[in-house]
Amino acid sequence: MPRGHYLLSHSVGCLPVGAQADLARRYFDPWRDLGGDAWAAWLGEIGRFRGLLGSLIGAPAAAICPQVNVSGALAKILHALPQRRGRHRLLLSEEDFPSLGFVLQAAAKLGYEPVFLPRGAASEDLDVWRAALDDRTQMALVTHAFSNRSARLPVAEITALARARGVTTVVDATQTAGVVPIDVADWSADFLVGSCVKYLCGGPGAGYLWACAEALAQSDPIDTGWFSHANPFAFDIHDFRPAADALRFWGGTPSIAPFVLAAGALELLLEFGVGAIHAHNQRLISRLHDMVPADVIRSARAPQGRGNTVLLQVRDEAQARTALREADVLADGRDGCIRVSPHLYNDAGDLDRLVEVLTPYF
Question: Could you report the per-residue pLDDT of 224-233, keeping only the tens digit for each?
Answer without folding.
Answer: 999 999 999 9
